[in-house]
Amino acid sequence: MFILERFILPKLLLALLAISISGCSVFMAAKQPVKKDISLFEVGVPRTALIAEYGAPIISEYKNDKKFEIFKFVQGYSTGAKVGRAVFHGAADVVTLGLWELVGIPTEITFSGDEMAYLVKYDENELVDEVIPIKKD
To answer: Edge to edge, what strands does the sheet with 59-63 contain?
Structure first.
């Protein structure tokens, strides 16, 4: 019993503490935005395909009988990249007993995707006629 109380119990409690306070960067990496297919911003693509990929446009209006829309979104990361980052954060948390969170959380806040915006003009059949990148990181 002396060995259990003196050596194993403190290490077990320390491991439980590390597991309970760590993990925020793991979840942040897993919850990063998904990667969007920006190759859809080309002439001839139907408007419905853009809405399916990027969601509703933030602005939609008509000028000179032509429809204009602005799509704004956060370009995220592939599933493989997100899983790799989460696994790395988890392993670093275990090795450093949770101290990795001091580095991992700011890293995930910094690398949370790139904001992008495109102006799209349509023809009379609601097919993309012209694409103008507004904000492309």
So the answer is: 59-63, 66-75, 114-122, 128-135
